[in-house]
Amino acid sequence: MLEEMLNFLARAPTLGDIPLAWSQGGPRPGTGGLYLRGVKILQSKTDLLGRQKQRCRAEFLLRLCLPLPAGDGETALANAQRLAGLQAWVAAESAAGRAPRLGNCEPVTEQLRTDGGQLDRADPGGTALYSIRVLAEYTIQY
Description:
The protein is an alpha+beta fold. The protein has two helices and five strands; from the N terminus they run H-E-E-E-H-E-E.
């Protein structure tokens, strides 16, 4: 699951020049990190044969360390457009069925979305740390 999500996000056009790794991201500008914050079971059902079906939501956090010189409005705007572009790309890829499959049944019900894109902190040295949540809902049967 982790490797699939990392490879999927690495294909995003707005992240093409940013290498991604499994980490919390930063502190070097132009790098990104992705980590799994957790998986929540939304619904659980057991059929007559004892097979269990669970609807789950995995939450990832993508952090990007980008240049942001003090007082540079153009770079701040470009960074914001990068986050907005990533959100639009993830939505389009999910709607087209090209997002990674995390479950083992009902691929039509799998959903991938982003939310909460924000600036976490700006450092006086000219860098900024941005984060965006990536949420994947899927169904798995045991």
